[in-house]
Amino acid sequence: MAKTIVVTSGKGGVGKTTSTAALGAALAQRGEKVAVVDFDVGLRNLDLVMGAERRVVYDLINVVQGDAKLSQALIRDKRCETLFLLPASQTRDKDNLTAEGVEKVMEELRKDFDWIVCDSPAGIERGATLAMRHADIAVVVTNPEVSSVRDSDRIIGLLDSKTAKAENGERIEKHLLLTRYDASRADRGDMLKVDDVLEILSIPLLGIIPESLDVLRASNLGTPVTMSDNNSAPALAYTNAARRLAGEDVPMSIPGEKRGLLGKFFGRRAA
Amino acid sequence: MSLFNFFQKRTTAPAARERLQILLAHERTNGEHSDLVNLLREEIIQVIAKHICVDGEKVAVKMDKGDKFSTLEVDIELPVDAKIKKAA
To answer: Which amino acids does the record list as binding ATP (chain A) (predicted)?
Structure first.
């Protein structure tokens, strides 16, 4: 049965698109069929992060309006044949994204895919509520920083009230993905720690993605970070998060956490 | 706090944590329900005012969202010499 994930945060710039690409690619690398869907009409970027910006012909709004078939708009990834992208429209008005139209597209995707990963726009307006509307699972992307945590709390409130599941009296599964985490700053007491954020937001932790140059390098190249260098700390962290989404029991580790002196010499690569 | 931190100036993360906890406790209480809470407050004041003279400022309505259930807290402060009106 298809599972629909929304990657959301409220605040912009915390890593929704990066996380959508990385989690989508990691799930597809398990051999499961994945569609990543960009809901950020007018400010699409998932195509760029996925390296498919020059292959976009039709988009989500074309499909919603019946100008193109879903199969025409889906772009198959060149590196992983089970990974597909449904881009957002860059030029059309976002008012063209209707609730009924989105529902139809999501239903069609569910028939054909194992996972549908929706990249939400920032904010709490219609685009964001439409992106979360049909989700079974929400990945709440949060930076260890006050404004991001506050906005995530707001988004959690919306997930519990504005989604189809919530309206049917069901519970939507919510997970915290802590991104841009810097263990050394947290150790020094200058950044909220994992436990602080968990205690404040009180939703289960899906993964901790370290602040890393590898994320920027991957987006420079248009490669999901989980496809660029499988051994980089963020790639490992995202891959483990994807495994947890798929139901595997993977022990949580804090990337870059200070180790003892011996650990520093012997345990370097074991992030 | 480690010995190393002891010699540094005060850290900022605890302040962030505390500010968030206070702010979110407040926002979660009202937040999305603020319209409903205000409406309830108005109507509760009207109902009480029929029978007792009460200061609108002294009526507090609070909604708390919990995991399993939410609570609605209504706190009405009556003056010592509250005048009870005769039922109309």
So the answer is: 11-18
Burial degree of B88 (CB within 10 A; 0-12, 13-18, 19+): exposed
* CB atoms B5 and A188 under 8 Å: yes
Distance CA A236, CA A78 (A): 22
| Chain A residues with CB-CB distance to B17 below 8 A | 192, 196, 200
Unique residue bearing structure tokens 């003279």: B53
Q: Residue A147: give the domain boundaries.
A: 3-246
Q: Chain A: nearest CA to B64, how far in angstroms?
A: 13
pLDDT in tens, A99-126: 999 999 999 999 999 999 999 999 999 9
Residue carrying the six token digits 């993964």: A207
């799930």: which residue's tokens? A27
Domain range B18-78, its CATH number among 3.40.50.720, 3.30.450.200, 3.30.1070.10, 1.10.287.110: 3.30.1070.10
Tell me which residues of chain B have a pLDDT lower than 50: 88
Q: Provide ipTM, 2 decimals.
A: 0.82
Q: Are A119 and A38 in contact (CB under 8 A)?
A: yes
Nearest-Cα distance to chain B for A171, in Å, is: 11
| Count of structural domains, chain A | 1
Residue A224, both tokens: 């999901």
